[in-house]
Amino acid sequence: MKKRWYHYLWIWSLLYFSLGFFNILFAWLGLISFALPLVMAIGFGNKLFCNRYCDRGQTLRALGQLGFSRRRDMPAWMKSQAFRYGFMVFFFAMFGNVLYSTWLVYSGAGSLQAVVTLLWTWQLPWQWTYSEMVNPWTAQFAFGLYSLMLTSEVIALLTMLVYRPRSWCVYCPMGTLTQIVCKAKATKK
């Protein structure tokens, strides 16, 4: 198969997590991963971003080609609409929690938590990545978004290891949301 430029978008994932490891403010770049799929779904009415341009999907594809995947079928419950929608709601509730904790720091009702929370459970000290040259709420949002992005990356990698390389794409919250947008656009036509 001929390699195309978008097959190298896995570099964006590597760059994102590397930069966030050294300076948490780079975590704001994660908003690109939230916005682009929606912009493309609204603009084009399809899942082109998910199918071709998603950096995470390209990372999983590349790792699968290197033999890191067992290439087993996913259980039917993971492919079900109930699981996909439920995971999307849970994921966006966690994003809402990021926004809420950012608001608390912004309003002075909370203090900056310079930690990255992995899998919504384990708090990893990450204070070396924060410079006090920015408002604490700016850093709080970055810590929260980086936590969310790192957690979803770990889940995606675990799913890839056990099942097919792009199994994450089946229940990805952004993929599910873009699918809803695409269906809504198709219904309007």
From TrEMBL:
InterPro entries, per database record: 4Fe4S_Fe-S-bd
Keyword field: Membrane, Transmembrane, Transmembrane helix
Domain 4Fe-4S ferredoxin-type: 26-51, 154-181
Regions that span the bilayer: 12-36, 82-100, 143-163
Entry coiled-coil feature ranges: none
One Pfam family here: Fer4_5
Protein name: 4Fe-4S binding protein
Lineage of origin: Bacteria, Bacillati, Bacillota, Negativicutes, Selenomonadales
